[in-house]
Write a structure and sequence with these properties.
The complex is a heterodimer of chains A (111) and B (117). Chain A is mostly beta strands and 111 residues long. Chain A has no helices and 9 strands. In chain A, the strands form 2 sheets. In chain A, strands 1, 3, 4, 7, 8 and 9 form a 6-stranded mixed β-sheet that branches. Chain A has a 3-stranded antiparallel β-sheet with strand order 2-6-5, with no helix packed on it. Chain B has 117 residues and is mainly β. The N and C termini of chain B lie far apart (39 Å). Classes of the chains: A mainly beta (111), B mainly beta (117).
Chain lengths: 111, 117
């Protein structure tokens, strides 16, 4: 089945570290396709946070990092700040679909 | 400044049609593949469709295949999404996005499509 599974929610206190997982399958992440991560605040345009598994676009703080292993990927956020409270999505290509796929999204709450 | 601006959203009756546009500026539009993504109220991002830089190859997700088609006019730096046989479940904010090495690095602010009688 062509899905990318993310936890619905994660939370952490200011200054803490949180990770958001993205679990795929052999037709997407496991097939070697890149994973990209986006931050989305309601009413705004989504923002690219990580591309190509672990690369940050210019302007994205180094508090954000990405990794990938096997059929899964992770987004880590260190030194949590109130402004990090948003929805986060992973994205990859799926060979069964012959198209792109988003994870279901994870809502990050900064306590 | 690199910009994508969607337009054309609005209220349409179930079964109706609508064309939304995405105007690009500040970059070489004809060099990039482009995508459409939507977000229904209270839901996550849903990938819809892609078109290559030349406009001669497209992909459409199964959820809208046969009802939605996309096109582009590189002379006008504009991307289009033609939506037909609209359903209430198509009600969403529709975003266009620029593709750079497979990631969507520039997004528009979105245009709202409401499907209701």
């Amino acid at each position: 089945q062509s899905v990318l599974t993310q936890p619905p929610s994660v939370s952490g206190a200011p200054g803490q570290r949180v990770t958001i997982s993205c679990t795929g399958s052999s037709s997407n992440i496991g097939a070697g396709f890149d994973v990209h991560w986006y931050q989305h605040l309601p009413g705004t345009a989504p923002k690219l946070l990580i591309y190509g598994n672990n690369n940050r676009p210019s302007g994205v703080p180094d508090r954000f990092s990405g990794s990938k292993s096997g059929t899964s990927a992770s987004l880590a956020i260190t030194g949590l700040q109130a402004e990090d409270e948003a929805d986060y999505y992973c994205q990859s290509y799926d060979s069964s679909l012959s198209g792109e796929l988003f994870g279901g999204g994870t809502k990050l709450t900064v306590l | 400044e690199v910009l994508l601006v969607e337009s054309g959203g609005g209220l349409v009756q179930p079964g109706g049609s609508l064309r939304i546009s995405c105007a690009a500026s500040g970059f070489s539009f004809s060099r990039h593949a482009m995508h459409w993504v939507r977000q229904a109220p209270g839901k996550g991002l849903e990938y819809l469709s892609a078109i290559n830089s030349h406009g001669d190859s497209t992909y459409t997700a199964n959820s809208v295949k046969g009802r939605f088609t996309l096109s582009r006019d590189n002379s006008k730096n504009t991307l289009y999404l033609h939506m037909g046989s609209l359903r209430t479940e198509d009600m969403a904010v529709y975003y266009c996005a620029r593709d750079t090495v497979g990631a969507f690095d520039v997004w528009g602010q979105g245009t709202m499509v409401t499907v209701s009688s």
